[in-house]
From TrEMBL:
GO MF, any single term: 5-amino-6-(5-phosphoribosylamino)uracil reductase activity
Gene Ontology BP annotations: riboflavin biosynthetic process
InterPro entries per the UniProt record, alphabetical: DHFR-like_dom_sf (IPR024072), RibDG_C (IPR002734), Riboflavin_Biosynth_HTPR (IPR050765)
UniProt name for this protein: Deaminase
Top-level taxon of origin: Bacteria
Pfam families documented for this protein: RibD_C
Residue ranges constituting the Bacterial bifunctional deaminase-reductase C-terminal domain according to the UniProt record: 4-195
């Protein structure tokens, strides 16, 4: 049985998920956005930052998201940024399909992550990710434009947003350009934590 297709992102209170410029990734504003993630025990273990870290609902959410994911899909912009920043052992530990216009051989990393590059559209990329994920879920990892393409195409089953207590003022909006006439949402759960508010919605055709 095929799993769900979902995305899970951190978002500022005014609706942004990233700065406009790739050069600003890992900058102070982005670090504030992700501040709920960095202290968590699972995050530290997954990136081999050492022992210790916080345990609680934030940590559980990170672990649950990782464990449900059998494969990921991402856009070329996110891959280009991550290729420069990820450690040698990339943090996915599952197949990752990159939607791109370029042709490139698969890129294998230590720890079980293999990046495969698909240049014939989002549907073909998702089909390949579904096959790789087997009966687990497929995560649309980002960036914002790629998430929006899958959402507008009716290919997302569910998503979660961790709303961080930070304001961006400008940047990449999560829902900029969404086809609201076609996308309907049903609340699944809302979970406040000391560091963020976690919102989960099922997606249905309108």
């Amino acid at each position: 049985m095929a799993g769900k297709v979902f995305f899970s992102v951190s978002m500022s209170l005014d609706g942004f998920i990233a700065p406009d410029s790739l050069g600003e990734l890992m900058g102070p504003q982005w670090m504030e956005l992700q501040a709920w993630v960095f202290p968590q025990r699972f995050f530290r273990e997954n990136l081999k930052f050492g022992e210790g870290g916080e345990e609680g609902r934030d940590n559980d959410i990170l672990r649950e998201t990782f464990e449900r994911t059998g494969a990921s899909v991402m856009g070329k912009r996110m891959f280009d940024a991550g290729e420069q920043m990820w450690p040698e052992e990339a943090p996915f530990h599952t197949p990752v399909v990159v939607v791109t216009h370029e042709k490139r051989d698969p890129w294998e990393r230590p720890g079980g992550t293999t990046f495969t590059f698909v240049n014939d559209g989002i549907k073909a990329a998702l089909d390949q990710a579904r096959e790789a994920a087997d009966d687990r879920d497929v995560r649309i990892a980002g960036g914002g434009e790629t998430i929006l393409q899958y959402l507008n195409a009716g290919l997302i089953d569910e998503f979660s947003v961790a709303v961080s207590p930070v304001l961006f003022g400008a940047g990449v909006r999560l829902f900029e350009g969404v086809d609201a006439a076609r996308v309907a949402l049903k609340p699944v759960r809302s979970e406040p934590s000391p560091r963020a508010t976690h919102l989960t919605y099922a997606v249905h055709p309108r």
